[in-house]
Write a structure and sequence with these properties.
Shape: globular
Structural class: alpha/beta
Strand content: 5-15%
Number of strands: 9
Largest sheet: 5 strands, parallel
Order of helices and strands: EHHEHEHEHEHEEHEHEH
Bound molecules: zinc ion
Number of helices: 9
Radius of gyration: 18 Å
């Protein structure tokens, strides 16, 4: 019998990282901690209402700030999984040396272990960009799964276009593009081979969601589309053994938050209110549950999928 698992994960990229992607150099003031201070409490309340245990991908260096550390410890204490989103969130992580890559994985793992009392078992790469060297580091660090591969042609094309346009305007982005071969990777959970976009016998990969119409099944699409689009896109995901919905804390940033004004020209999703965006996410969850899907953390999904024979 195939399983019907759905997992919601939330990347805790803080506002300065968005500013870096968009090449914004202005001072951020109180916006600098908006994800941890304003978005996470909103998501935490929403997850409680929906009775969902989720996976939060934390960046190691963000846990050097005491209030962020308390937030992460509290999330862990209320049953959520805390996973590894690297120590510095270098967008060009895969272009660094093997030692630096291993260090990025290990330092964040140690930081989370120190905050929660348990080592994380899952990893998500900055900007969805992975490499065989990164997978070697994840296996050496004893990870159970990775969830970064994003074989989505429309997302890939949009990112390539955005980076080209910034280059033409001589604006510098911190972001980089993965090899187009990633588009050939499986859309279902698989064990990575060498190269990582081919199935093999390595680490368990839980790819980021792509709908049947090749659209990115991620928080940004759902909150921008609203409840009806969220329901339609979720229906396109039904039938898979794992629906992997990736959100960012920033997805529930609120249009009324004036401190984020510098990002408004770059982020259409900032024109919507947080309540409206959470309604779209609730609608997606309802479609999953009505179809018999069980919502679990990615770590739990990885444990259950590891028990079934690999394809
Ligand atoms: Zn990130």
């Amino acid at each position: 019998m195939t399983s019907k698992l759905a997992a919601i994960s939330i990347d805790l990229d803080e506002v300065p990282r968005y500013a870096a992607i968009h090449g914004i150099e202005a001072s951020l003031g109180s916006a600098a901690h908006a994800v941890y201070d304003r978005c996470v409490p909103r998501l935490q309340a929403w997850l409680r209402e929906e009775s969902i245990s989720a996976t939060f991908f934390a960046i190691g260096e963000d846990l050097e700030r005491p209030p962020n550390r308390e937030t992460i410890a509290a999330l862990y204490g209320s049953g959520h999984e805390i996973a590894n989103h690297s120590h510095h969130h270098y967008y060009d992580l895969v272009r660094r040396t093997e030692n630096e890559i291993a260090d990025e994985v290990e330092r964040c793992a140690a930081m989370i272990a120190d905050t929660c009392g348990t080592r994380p078992v899952g990893f998500r790469a900055p900007g969805y960009t992975v490499s065989d060297a990164l997978f070697r580091a994840l296996e050496a660090a004893g990870m159970l799964y990775d969830s970064s591969v994003f074989p989505c042609p429309t997302y890939y094309a949009a990112k390539a276009a955005a980076l080209t346009s910034m280059k033409l305007q001589r604006r510098k982005s911190a972001s980089i593009l993965d090899t187009p071969s990633v588009l050939r990777a499986p859309r279902r959970p698989y064990r990575v081979g060498r190269p990582y976009w081919q199935p093999g016998s390595g680490l368990l990969e839980l790819p980021i969601g792509v709908t049947k119409l090749q659209l990115p099944y991620i928080g940004t699409s759902l909150v921008l589309g609203g409840p009806r689009v969220a329901a339609m896109m979720t229906k396109q995901m039904l039938g898979r053994e794992l629906i992997n919905l990736e959100l960012h804390g920033f997805d529930v940033a609120d249009a009324a938050d004036d401190s984020l004004h510098m990002l408004v020209p770059h982020r259409a999703d900032l024109r919507r209110r947080a309540g409206e965006k959470l309604r779209a996410l609730s609608r997606a969850v309802r479609v999953m549950r009505e179809a018999g899907y069980e919502l679990v953390t990615l770590g739990e999904a990885a444990r259950r999928l590891s028990r079934t024979p690999s394809r």
